[in-house]
Amino acid sequence: MPPPAPPPRAPLPRPAGGAGDDAVPAAPVRLRAVGRAFPVAGGTHHVLAGVDLDVRAGTTVALLGASGSGKSTLLRLVAGLDLPTSGDVEVGGAPVRDVSERCAVVFQEPRLLPWRDLAGNVALGLPRGTPRATGRAEVLHWLDVVGLAGFAGHRPRRVSGGMAQRAALARALVRRPGVLLLDEPFAALDALTRLRMQDLLVDVQRATGATVLVVTHDVDEALHLADRVVVLGSDGPGAPACVRRDLPVRQPRPRDRGDAELAELRVELLELLGVPRTGPAPAAGATGPDPQAVQARQTA
Ligand SMILES: Nc1ncnc2c1ncn2[C@@H]1O[C@H](COP(=O)(O)OP(=O)(O)O)[C@@H](O)[C@H]1O
Ligand SMILES: [Mg+2]
After folding, report:
1. What separation in Å is there between the alpha carbon of 45 and the centre of ligand 1?
2. Is residue 146 domain-resident?
3. pLDDT digits (tens, 9 = 90+) for 276-286
4. pTM of the full structure
5. Distance from the CA of 52 to the center of ligand 2, in angstroms?
6. CB of residue 233 inside a 6 A radius of ligand 1
7. What is the pLDDT of residue 280?
8. Which end of the chain is less packed: N or C, by CB atoms within 10 Å?
9. In ligand 1, which atom is closest to the CA atom of 36?
10. Number of domains the chain contains
11. Residue 110 is part of a domain; what is its CATH number?
12. 299 lines ligand 1 (CB under 6 A)
């Protein structure tokens, strides 16, 4: 049995005067005319083409798009885990040619080593050459920040999915990355844990000031987290994706999940993703649809 979940909100150190111990030199991200194609049987699969994207240092951008639209591919290009077939990717003003030291990635699965305890897993993220004592203090600090103080000695199989993902976040943060890249980081978690993790990420961004690029297919998550929501899409099946919409989200934080303006943006984003404002009218049946209601929906 996993131990009880940690408190909903981690007690984060608040940087005094806007810059504290946790602050990192945030790096901007810039993509220009980026394309990525993969060789496939009988031809080439163009996944991304002509992608232009700027993420200002210290801001959060959420990347939305249908499954298979190339979101993970784009994130991998920024992280330096893959290279574009055309165009340029820059982090902190320097071209990305290899796995970028300034980026840290969190994936959907925590990818923890089962034979190491949480502290040992987080330590894997420490920059090479970190002295042992400093490293231990850093690990314990970031475990504390993500709400896992007291769980340093637990093995991954003894903690819940949410706690394992907190450890994965700490492993990324211990590198003090200028850019935090997250690929559907909360998609595998239950709905309530996901909401708590979103709040944790907002807190972490505020405490570190890092640039955050987060891939999600959850429109509400994008609107809760981001300063801008960028939607990837293509002209049709098989066509390469590019940026279809770049939408600023100006609501101050902490954000009210019931905010009326966010609800409007939500409708707009869902429509861009092919989900209409209303569902289909119920089929005529025993209970029968109310003809007036159907007509109202059709003319709305
Ligand atoms: N290494 C690869 N080789 C061939 N095709 C790939 C490779 N990586 C991704 N793709 C293809 O690129 C498309 C986009 O994938 P991905 O970026 O994972 O989409 P998303 O994250 O938006 O769901 C998919 O059709 C996928 O099959
Ligand atoms: Mg993906």
Report:
1. 9
2. yes
3. 888 777 776 65
4. 0.89
5. 19
6. no
7. 78
8. N
9. 12
10. 1
11. 3.40.50.300
12. no
